[in-house]
Amino acid sequence: MKRVFWIVLDSVGLGGAPDAADFGDAGSDTLGSCYKSGKMNVPNLEKLGLANIDGTSFRAPKSDVIGCYCRMHEKSMGKDTTVGHWEMAGMISPRPLPTYPNGFPQDVLDKLEAAWGRKIICNLPYSGTEVIKDYGKEHVETGALIVYTSADSVLQIAAHEDVVPIEDLYKYCRQAREIMQGEHGVGRIIARPFEGEHPYQRTVRRHDFSLQPPRETVLDALKSEGFLNIGVGKIYDIFAGKSVMLSYPNKGNTANMERVLDVADSDFEGLCYINLVDTDMIYGHRRDVPAYTQALCDFDVQLGQLMEKLRDDDILIITADHGCDPGYTGTDHTREDVPCLVYGAKLKKDVNLGTRDTFADMGATIADYFGIGYRGDGASFLSEIV
């Protein structure tokens, strides 16, 4: 019974993307910032090869590595969750999804206001925590929706849960998703609910409404061949539900990993695909190095628990979708290479897979492992590790 546990540590880049300067991110290094804090304690990640990846300098290579490891470039033209996950699942995005550094055009705003029956305020790139500080009171007083964006391809809608019930906010996001297609097909429409008195606090009921992948991914191929795809965290949202057959929505990193530990005790054949978003959403964008580092340390403990539950035919893959260096300037994602760590009882130990040209090599390897005919982007490295 073949199972793959594929964990995406959201935004845990390792610097060094060759085109980082083109994205305004020269010198960014998420893992480097965490190691420089002096508080990084991730023995299980290092046992899998984290410190042995080409081009890393944050810790001396280990000699007792039990995993296979490599550095991965992103080939897609972006540095966000959507294109990062699409690429690793076998679909490179050669053209960037639309972004709005000056806010959304008036014709888009007119369509949104007509659909919602509410006015729009803000319409600027903004930090999610700052936007509710600056516009929250006006929203509460008028009922106008706070619409904002970022450096990523997103349209975000913030609303107080006492003013806009959560299901209404989700309805507005679905309506926006229908409008934001084609030329304005942003990667994600994001519901950003908040609560309390000023200064307001965001709630855990965030929800992403993603653009569907325009081509088949390895998830589609696995489903068509009769394998089960389980999504934990944001996976269902990222792929707009496509070919995710059993979903456990995001409850935070610790709870998500507890769910994965439960899944590891169950009998299934297929893929358990996990996104752990706290590093990005809570700590990376807020440039909080200590908390980001601690989140990785906490994950490492649960990683050790998962490794103990793995069966002989299981494969574990740990990677990231982009960077969000908590020690860098600004508040946005950073264009970085990402790590890829692969482990299984029947796999070779201490194999350096070098530097790969695309995240899509992971999807190709998973397809190869399950013996399905899917041939998306990327090249399998399975023969190098079995």
Number of strands: 14
Run of helices and strands: EHHEHHEHEEHEEEHEHEHEHHEEEHH
* Superfamily (CATH H level) name of the largest domain: Alkaline Phosphatase, subunit A
* Percent helix range: 25-40%
How much β-strand is present in the residues?
15-25%
Largest sheet: 8 strands, mixed
Spans of 5+ residues with little confidence (pLDDT < 50)?
A: none
Distance linking N and C termini: 16 Å
CATH topology of the largest domain: Alkaline Phosphatase, subunit A
- Highest-level CATH class of the largest domain: Alpha Beta
Structural class: alpha/beta
The radius of gyration is 20 Å
Q: Which word captures the global form?
A: globular
Strand order of the largest sheet: 10-9-11-1-12-13-2-14
Helix count equals 13
Architecture per CATH nomenclature, i.e. the level-2 architecture of the largest domain: 3-Layer(aba) Sandwich
**How many separate domains?**
2
Which whole number gives the mean pLDDT?
97
Overall description:
Helices cover 33% and strands 20% of the residues. By secondary structure, the chain is α/β, with parallel strands linked by helices. It folds into two domains: 3-94 and 213-385, Alkaline Phosphatase, subunit A; 106-210, Phosphopentomutase (Alpha-Beta Plaits), CATH 3.30.70.1250. The strands form two sheets. The chain has an eight-stranded mixed beta sheet with strand order 10-9-11-1-12-13-2-14, sandwiched between helices. Helix 4 crosses helix 6 (166-179), helix 9 (253-264) runs parallel beside helix 11 and helix 10 (278-284) runs antiparallel to helix 11 (289-309). The chain is globular. The mean pLDDT is 97.
